[in-house]
Structure formats: structure tokens, C-alpha cells
Amino acid sequence: MINSNCIDALSHLDVMLAQESTLKFFKYFKNTNACGINKAWRNAMITWIQQVQKTLLLSPDTVWIAMSYFDRYLCSGKGKSTHVLKDKLEFQLAAVTAFYTAVKIHEPVVLGVDVLVMLCRGIHTEEDIINMEYDILTALEWRVSCPTGMDFARSICELIREDDNLPSYIADSILGSCEQHMDNAVADINFWCCRPSVLGISCVVSALAASDVLTLEESQAIWVRLSTLCNFDLSSVDIAAAQQYLMSQSSQCESDIISQVAKQQQPVPNTSADMSYNVEVGSLSPISVVQSARTA
Description:
Elements: H1 4-20, H2 39-55, H3 60-76, H4 81-84, H5 88-106, H6 113-119, H7 126-139, H8 149-161, H9 168-185, H10 196-209, H11 216-229, H12 237-263, H13 281-284, H14 286-294
Helix pairs in contact: 1-8, 2-3, 2-5, 2-14, 3-5, 5-7, 8-9, 8-10, 9-10, 10-12
């Protein structure tokens, strides 16, 4: 039986699909850039943003939202977005500003422009950031509440949560797995032009397939119920391809982690009690993070 919570979740999915239908997505790095800006530069900026997010104890959602702003801006063709793809400092500035805007809108804490300038080691001024923010917002037509893949995943997990035959921890487990898949997907070139709904659904499918708290039969039963409830095609070719790729990348990440741990032969040295607080500004600078991109 469909209760009011299920109806709300389904209505939310319909609203997000309507919002998504007005957006355009494509791989803006499909042509080689003469100045060398490529996917490695985007990945370097994501690495920096994630470092700052974790250091400041911000939500991972803020990273996903920031990259949504950034990618939509570069796909818009409006304002300075075309020039940004041709200038490394402007590209870097746009990514930093997208993160600043996401924090300002979605976080309870304040990340001041002056702090951001310090983190950038003065490479960008307060005026640079303010002007870039205006350019991004006008290019996006001030639409800062468009759904991310994780928004779709959460609404679908809410449908799982409302299944009377399943304990609530099942939905929590699936949602946690979806967040891990989103972390992997945000830096992956294969998902730049992916609609948020496709990414979100793919994360749920991958989480169900890899679940260690559900049997195969239970996962299949959940999927059948979702397919019946939802008003969009849960078995599309795009979703199947994205889900398969997510699973392969997740397995590769696990193998890489195991290999890295196995190679560690020296014990971790003791650090001072305030080491977690005493982070050098230079280590968080996008300039220092981008160094790795130059050799990619």
C-alpha cells in the first residue's frame, strides 16, 4: 500500500525530473584545449575542494552541488564560460567560486571571501571571486536548486524506507553506499554529461547489487517494487550502462586501497596533538593541488 510518505517521494521525483529536463549536459573537454586544460585539471580542483570540505567538516553534498554549478556553468556557453575553458587561472577561479557559492547557500557555516583568498594564497582577489560568482549565477539564470544525482538517490531510498516488509536500516545501508558511489562518480569523466536522474538511479542499483545486508532475491524484489512505483524507466540502457561502470570503478577502488595498505611497511609516526588543526594554507591551495594535473 502506498502511504503519504511514498506519495511525497514520488511527487518530489516528478518535480526533479521536470527541473532536469530544462538542463543540458555534455562533455566540454571533448576537444583538446590548446592551453592544456583537460579532465586532469577538473579532477585536481575536485581534490582540492574535497580537501577543504573535509578539513572544515562540511557536508559531501556541498562538493556535489559545487561541481553541479561548475559543470552547468561550463556547459552554458554564457558569460565568460567559454573563456574559462581557455585560461587555467580562470578555470581554477570558477571551480573555487562554485564551491564558495555552494557553501554560502547550503551550509550553516560561513566561508568568507577573505578566507577563500587566503586558501588560494592570494592568487585570486576578493573582487575576482565576487565577479566570477555573479558570472556563474547569471549564466545559470540564478537556478541554484537544481537536483543532483544524490537528490534522486535519496528520494528513491525514501521509497525503500517506506516498504513495510523491510527494516529501516536497509534504506540507511543503501543510502550510505549511494554516497560512496557519488564520491567516485563526481570526479569521473564518464558522468559529466550524465543526467542527475540517471546517476542517482545507477547509484541505487549499484548499492542494491553490492549490498551485504540483502539477499539477491530481496534486492530483486526491491527493484521490482521501485520499477512499479516510479514514473520513469528504471531499466533504460543509460542506467544499465552507468550502473555497470559504477560497479567496475568501485571494485577497482577497493583493489587500489588493498594494494596501498599492503605496501605500507613502516608504522605511522606519532604526530602532535594539534596536527589535525595545524594545516598549512599551502597544502590546501588549489595551486599546490593542481601541480599533479600538470604531469597528467
